[in-house]
Every structure is written in C-alpha cells, then in structure tokens.
Amino acid sequence: xxxxxxxxxAERELCAEYLGRLVHYCRVDEVVLKSGTPASEAAGxxxxxxxxxxxxxxxxxxxxxxxxxxxxxxxxxxxxxxDVAFVIGGSHGLPVGLDAALDSASPVERWSLSALTFPHRLxxxxxxxxxxxxxxxxxxxxxxx
Length: 145
Description:
Layout (H helix, E strand, L loop, with lengths): L1 E2 L5 H14 L9 E2 L4 H11 L4 E11 L2 H12 L6 E4 L10 H4 L6 E5 L7 H20 L6
Parallel strand pairs: 1-2, 3-4, 3-5
C-alpha cells in the first residue's frame, strides 16, 4: 500500500508491468491511501493492513540483498494467512505515530530499498520489481542472475 496516487504515466506503466508479472505467483492488491494528517494516514494504514504481516519501507530499515529479501518474503508468507502488507509513505515519508497505531498482534518489520532516499513514486516501482525478482528467485527461474 502507498500513501498518494501515482500521477506520472511512466511510473504507472512500470508498476502495471510488474504487478502483471506478480499475479502469476501470488494474489496482489494495490492499496492507495489518501494523503492527509499523520494520524489519518496511520489509521488508514492500520485498517488496510489488519491481519497481515507489515513491512514498513524506510531508508533506516534493514538493508537486504535480493536473495535475502526473497527468503524473508517466503518466511513472512508462511505466517498466519500469509498476507504481507508493504507500506510506502507519501512524499513526507511514513506518518509519525504509525508504530503506535499498528496492531501489536501483527508482526512489523522495517526494510530499506536502498540507503538512498527515493521519491515515493519510484519506491513503488522498485518494490514491485524486487517482489517479482523475489518470486523468480524462490522458483529458481532465470530472471535473477
């Protein structure tokens, strides 16, 4: 899920391409939340991620290789119902107070897509590509070499 809609057609096309590839491996729901106050964004994220393992994408999160991301994704997918909610903040990042708003019953992790800071629209493209790459790694397919 991401706070704020994609406005650029180039980013939207890339997201659609990788989402189209991902649906061959798993169910994917793209959730776009309205930008608002930190409290309203946190409440929207909490509601949309209910019952799922939550991964907050944050430049201060754990740094992973593509192979390690694939293994962590596999482990998260085997918990509970197997739902994993990836959260990308809006243009100002993740809302303040998000950790407190999330249900403590759901596992929450923080992962970094890079030590670099990306615009949220690019972070979405990078996430979708890395999720697709993870699926091909787990299946032993030749995309990742």
